[in-house]
Write a structure and sequence with these properties.
The complex is a heterodimer of chains A (188) and B (185). Chain A is 85% helix and 0% strand. Chain A has 188 residues and is mostly helical. In chain A, helix 1 packs antiparallel against helix 2, helix 2 packs across helix 4 and helix 3 packs across helix 4. The chains are: A mainly alpha (188), B mainly alpha (185).
Chain lengths: 188, 185
Amino acid sequence: MRLLTELFLTFAQIGAFTFGGGYAMIALIENICVVKKNWLTHDEMMNIAVIAESTPGPIAINCATYVGFRQRGVAGAVAATLGIVLPSFAVIYLIAAYLDAFLQIAWIAHAFAGIKAAVGILILDAGLKMAFKMPKKLLPRSIMLCSAAIMLGANVFARRLSSIVLMLAAAAVSLALFLAGRARERSA
Amino acid sequence: MICLELFLGFLKVGCFAFGGAYGAIPLIRDVVLSHGWLSDEALLSMIAVSESTPGPIMVNLATYVGSAQAGLPGAVAATLAVVLPSFAVILLVTAFLNTALKNPVFQAVLRGLKPCLSGIILATGVYWTGAHCVAGGSFDVRAAALTVVLATFYFGSRRFIKNGISPISLIVSAAVAGAAVYGLV
């Protein structure tokens, strides 16, 4: 029980003090779990980062689940994951109640109008970073450009298009090409 | 009933959010627009709030949408749903699927998913930036000027500081600039 409480409190602390999520959290998690608590080795930490790349979801949650599971099985995984989610849950829940009233104030509404420009830039930046990390080959590049063109077209002409359907189609194309390539190798 | 819809909607988001903090935004946008839970306008304000409060952005957005639609039960349903896929995947991977991730068939699927998602994220960024500058069919000079200045500041800062300024500093600068430009000009 003590270990469960410790896992919960440690990850709640990480959750409460990391802004912006994602990779900003990694440094803090590494500092606490690897250096201070010895819950993980540096290699394990690198491994989680790799696993997080190929699985969905925020890397901070992946880390919490992994560390909790390694320390105390499924109960530990639940304690650590709830711990990391709880602070943001509580903060947003409180904000949600007041946000609309808050946005009625003129200068705050102006500030948010400015922020809208920033959010577009941040999303572009995230897309560019992901694009630069991709293997520089024809297939991923054409998938990326086609998806971007289709999605942008759907947005501009106000057509409803599910991103998930588009992603599944891209996965199917990539899988079909892979299987076709393997079949050709076998028959040759 | 609304709680079940929230749960299923955000479960889909949790299953496909590969691209880190901002990867989930186009997916969340799909879900909230198709259910009529939030407008683009409200979503943008909420992304700014999420960036300035602790915790992963997609968890923050799930909590917000859930609580706006159905109070505390809705917030719990949406937040659990968005976290559940990453939680389950890590349990499976550490318990017995460690080799599955290296499986060539799975890797081929990922090679399709990831470039597609990065294309979707790019399209969302371009669309939002463009739509912000052309509000209601007419070109908005103040919004366009603000966008150009902020983008120059954000990307330009990388030449002088390692990694450039952080997203949260960009948001704070944008808030100050917005209050000044729209309040005074």
